[in-house]
Structures are given as structure tokens and as C-alpha cells.
Amino acid sequence: MKNNHTLIIGGGIVGATLALKLAQDNNPVTLIDARPERSEADWQQVLGQRDARVYALSLASIELLKEIGAWQKIAASSRTADYSQMQVWQLNGRGELLFGDSGNNNVNNDSDSSNSAPKMLGSMVEPAIIEYALWQRLLAPDVSQYLTVIAGQKVVDMDWLGSTQGYRVTLDNGSVVNARLLVGADGRGSFVRKQAGIELDVLDYKQTAICCAIQTEKPHQATARQAMLPTGTLALLPLADITDEDKANPQHWQSIVWTLPRNQALALIAEHPRYIADKLAAASHYELGAIHKIESIASFPLAAQQAKSYVADNLVLIGDAAHGVHPLAGQGLNLGMLDVKALSEQLTHDYNRSGGTLWGANQTLRSYERLRRPHNSLMMHSFSALNWLFAGSLAQLRPIQQLRNEGMYRVSKIKPLMRLFAKQASGV
After folding, report:
1. Is 70 exposed, middle or buried, given 0-12, 13-18 or 19+ CB atoms closer than 10 A?
2. Range(s) of the chain covered by CATH 3.50.50.60
3. Which residues contact 380 (CB under 8 A, 6 or more apart)?
């Protein structure tokens, strides 16, 4: 029967990517997205505006998007900002970490002394650009035989019918969908996770991130920058040039994620945009000069969380439904894409090995959990440790400062270790 194998709840980037991956492998799948389907005109209106938010797509995420035919559309949009370097530094401290190969050691040097193009580490892409490419692929005829998309409907009830039958899911219009395997890809507040009774481990950082888009005096030179400040991290991430004016003077737009103590962030975001821009430039010590324009100012609270289990009978969690990390390394979506890769490969491998009889069996789901949960836990706690090491009152104690300064200086001098860090960031 068509579409009785897998039901994915959540049509965001991670859920849509898994749906396309399974359908391309000839596995029946239904995708439910609570958001109404956009028309082509609606999409063009959204795409006509610059989004302050970007995802730092790793090479591994890009490769997965290529496999499902979405990256080709993203690249053709000319709305990507590839980066070949990552610069991490602390103000008033010793040492700087510079990942990547630009052909010279000065990321702010306008001259190009290299004989070959720098190697790409990843690409900054606005969320809507990725979502539009995925939407186009979801409607493509090459996957239509195995893929059903239900948009604009919310799941209101989930009933487990036993391990051989899986789940019966009821939508708010009264319709019912049955599936052997139920996948929760419905974000941090996951309805699927809550209905399955899976608890969360949560760490509230008591920080808020200010997000905006800025046009800077100096070009970003395909470099993703992150300043480790006593108040939290400040990320300056390349944005694609979208207007003719931008393209005539390229590489001056950045996406900002500025982490501050919660009360300080909420007070700052209430100020005039020009005041915020001046404070932001000063906080970066004018790394890219003055800020000429600032747009789309918003904020969001920061907390890390992880589901105590990623799986239950006939049920599995992926992406933000399973885990959420501090944004300081920009790895949240990349971790979700690695979930997709691991789960799809494990499902297909065990299904083929069983002669086409076992789909989403408990041993399959447990294998996925063993692959992904320890890795995601390590990343989550590593980001928390870095945040603790640089931000807050304890981080300003002299012994901590000395340890941090010496550590960054020593690490920056060990080239094999720097190459390893760059490889880990790329996800390959």
C-alpha cells in the first residue's frame, strides 16, 4: 500500500530532506507540514527580501542536499555566500584561531597572494532559499510515486497500534494516516516527543541572542568570524549579495548573532537601530569597520536541550525535536542533517538485509540512536563548555583568563590540530 512505511511530522528543512531521501530510495513516505502551502507568488515575495538569518551549511550538509537534488537549485539562485575561512578570536586576549586556506595569513588583506582559489569550508544560506529548493523537489515527478505531502494540517492525536502496525495519526481536519514508522521532525517544542512521553534534559544559558543583517565598511572576504566576548559570542557571518547595488560592491553584508546576558539583550533591542549598530561595531572592536546599514533586528532566548531518548516503539526523533545546541558554532542544522543521513542509511540497510520485511524495527532505531545521540551530546556539552569558558563572571577570573589565553595560543600553533578542527566543522 502506498505511503504506509513512514510518516514524517514536520516539514522544515530536516523533515523535508529525510522525506526526499527516502522517496528517492523508493521507500513510501508521507510528510505532514502544519504550515499552509505557499504559492509561487508567495515564495517570490519571501525570496525578494533579505533574511538576517543564515544557516552555516557544512560540506556534509551540502553533499546531502546534492543527493536529493536541492543544492543544485540553491546554487543556481545565486543566494549563497561560500566561506573559505573561519576566524575565532577573543578581545583583550592572546591567540587567534584561523581555519581554512586563503593563501595568506591575514584575513583582512585585500591582496590575493595565492595561486589557486581557496578551498570552500561551507556556505551561508538564508532559510527561505533552502526551503524553496526543497519545496520544488517535493513536487517533482521523479519522487511523486513514493511521496505524499500534506500541508496546512496539524496533528492532533497519535495512537500506537502495536509494533506490527505502528501508528495511527489524526489530523485537525479529521483525516487519519497510518504508518509503520513515525518520525518526529517538528522542532524544539515537538508534539511527537511530548505525546511519546519522552523527557528532555534542558540547560538554560540565561542568554539571549540578537540577530540582524548589517552592511559593513570593510568586506568579509569569504570569512566567517566569531569574537569571544565576556558577555557572550559575537558571530559575523557572510551574507549573499542580492541587489545590483550589493553586487557592484560585494561582500559587505553580514548576518549577526550576538549573544548577551538576557536582561542586557532585551534592553538593547528596545533602542534605536542606529544605536544598536554603533554598539555592535564597538563590541567587535571595528573588525570590519563602521556599520553603514542594519536590518531585520530580532532576538531569541538561548537554551540547550536533548531528548533523554531518541526512539520508542515505531517512533524516532530527528533534528531539533531530538536536540538543540548553543548557536556559537552554527552547527544546529548540520547536526540534524547528519541525523537524516544516519537514519536513512540505517533504515535502508536493515530493510534490505531483512529481505524487505523489517522497516523501522526497534533494533534499527536503536542503532540510529547509538550512532547519533553520543555525538550530539558531545557537541552540545562542548559548545556549553566553550560558552562557559568565555562568558560570565567565572570566565573573567584571572586563572581562567590565563588558561584560555594560553590554550588558544598553543592550539593556533598546531597545524594538524587546526586542520582536524576544520574537518570536524565541515562534517566530512
Report:
1. buried
2. 6-49+127-202+305-383
3. 304, 306, 323, 325, 326
* 385-418 burial code (b ≥16 CB/10 A, e <16): ebbebbbbeeeeeeeebeebeeebeeebeeeeeb
Q: What is the mean pLDDT of residues 320-348?
A: 91
Nearest to 122 by CA among 426, 342, 417, 347: 426
Q: Where in the chain is the domain with CATH 3.30.9.10?
A: 76-124+204-304+390-426
Cell 534592553 belongs to residue: 267
Q: How many other CB atoms sit within 10 Å of the CB of residue 308? A: 10
Integer Cα distance of 338 and 333 in angstroms = 9
Percentage of residues of the chain with pLDDT beyond 90: 70
Q: Provide Rg for the chain, Cα atoms.
A: 22
CATH of domain 6-49+127-202+305-383: 3.50.50.60
**pLDDT tens, position by position, 107-123:** 343 444 445 556 788 99
- Tens digit of pLDDT for each residue in 339-377? 999 999 999 999 999 998 899 999 999 999 999 999 998
Query: Which amino acid, 36?
Result: P
Please give the pLDDT value at position 391: 56
The pLDDT score that the predictor gives to residue 388 is 56
Contact (CB, 8 A) for 208 and 266: yes
CATH superfamily of 76-124+204-304+390-426: D-Amino Acid Oxidase, subunit A, domain 2 (3.30.9.10)
- Distance, CA of 172 to CA of 130 (rounded, Å): 28
Please give the model's pTM, rounded to 2 decimal places: 0.88
CB 88 within 8 A of CB 228: yes
Q: C-alpha distances in angstroms, 42 versus 38, 45, 47, 241?
A: 6, 5, 9, 21
Taking alpha carbons only, the member of 264, 378, 402, 284 closest to residue 325 is: 378
Any residues with CB less than 8 A from the CB of 341 and at least 6 apart, and which?
Answer: 21, 60, 64
- CA 351 distance to own-chain centroid: 29
* pLDDT per residue as tens digits for the range 34-67: 999 999 999 999 999 999 999 999 999 999 999 9
| C-alpha 37 chain-centroid distance | 22
Work out the mean pLDDT of the chain and round it to a whole number: 86
